[in-house]
Design a protein that fits this description.
It comes from Saccharibacillus alkalitolerans. InterPro entries: AAA+_ATPase (IPR003593), ABC_transporter-like_ATP-bd (IPR003439), ABC_Transporter_VariousFunc (IPR051782), P-loop_NTPase (IPR027417). One of its GO terms (molecular function) is ATP binding. This is ABC transporter ATP-binding protein. Keywords: ATP-binding, Nucleotide-binding, Transport. This protein is α/β, with parallel strands linked by helices and 244 residues long. It has a single domain, classed as P-loop containing nucleotide triphosphate hydrolases (Rossmann fold, 3-Layer(aba) Sandwich), CATH 3.40.50.300. It has ten helices and nine strands. It has a six-stranded mixed β-sheet, with helices on both faces. Strands 2-1-4 form a three-stranded antiparallel β-sheet, covered by helices on one side. α5 runs antiparallel to α6. The longest helix is centred in the last third of the chain and has 14 residues. The relative contact order is 0.18. Bound molecules: adenosine-5'-triphosphate.
Length: 244
């Protein structure tokens, strides 16, 4: 990164900042000395092969796991009640109970989060072709992901963390879901999206972070990356992870 980019970054209040964050599970290093920052109004792709540390990074940002060392800030707050109120996290596994209907899952989210927006949630349900009366247990994997996204994006959060949001959605529907991401996220907020399906999703990214064996190996603006390398993000990803 250039000096002027550094100065610009320092002037904008960062939504998320990691400084030298490391995390081990037993003797397995899941994150190694990761430093990054995400400013407002950005859609950031978090890319990495299986086990590279994407979920760990998101869980630490969401305040669900603690780093062993390093510091994390969300709009200047250390992880805790204030930072959690600013973040909407979509985990890679369903967070609703299987006995719930779609409507009950949304009501639960509404009761839990002060920033839940009922109007947005209604528009998202229509967009996702879900009905309040649908039973969560009878939804297909792809429809469950649509519900997960509806729950996450129905909040007016500052930072959305979406862990593999389109893995179970069929290729035809992916474009529709990506359009929902772009349409329903808040202008001044930012979104970090982890994925393996880079070719499908790279069109929505402003910036990508590539993580390999717990280390951040690349952080770049997508336009710049395409201009510098003459390659798509997907092509570059395949090169970086060729031996994984
Ligand atoms: N709770 C845990 N206990 C032990 N090891 C863990 C735990 N969570 C993650 N790990 C290990 O940490 C490393 C990073 O895992 P993580 O889930 O963050 O990767 P990921 O990039 O999200 O992978 P995937 O794309 O397969 O979901 C892996 O080696 C994983 O086995």
């Amino acid at each position: 990164m250039t000096g002027s980019a550094n100065r610009e970054e320092a002037e904008v209040e960062q939504l998320l900042e990691f400084e030298a964050v490391s995390k081990k599970y037993g003797n397995k290093a899941a994150l190694r000395d990761v430093s990054l920052s995400v400013g407002p109004g950005r859609i950031v792709g978090l890319l990495g092969s299986n086990g590279s540390g994407k979920t760990t990074l998101m869980r630490i940002a969401a305040g669900l796991d603690r780093p062993d060392s390093g510091t994390v800030r969300v709009l200047g707050h250390e992880p805790g009640r204030a930072s959690k109120a600013l973040i909407s996290f979509m985990p890679d596994r369903p967070q609703f109970e299987r006995w719930m209907t779609v409507g009950e899952a949304l009501d639960f989210q509404r009761d839990f989060f002060a920033d839940f927006d009922p109007d947005k949630s209604k528009r998202m349900l229509e967009f996702m072709k879900l009905s309040r009366g649908d039973k969560a247990s009878s939804l297909s994997k792809g429809m469950q992901e649509r519900l997960q996204l509806t729950l996450a994006l129905s909040r007016r959060a500052s930072l959305y963390l979406l862990d593999e949001p389109i893995g179970g959605v069929d290729p035809v529907a992916r474009g529709h879901i990506l359009d929902a991401l772009v349409e329903f996220y808040e202008e001044d907020s930012s979104m970090i999206v982890s994925t393996h399906l880079i070719a499908d999703i790279e069109r929505i990214f402003d910036e990508v972070l590539m993580i390999k064996e717990g280390s951040l190996v690349l952080r770049q603006e997508v336009e710049q990356l395409r201009m510098d390398s003459g390659k798509s993000v997907d092509q570059l990803f395949k090169e970086v992870y060729a031996e994984c």
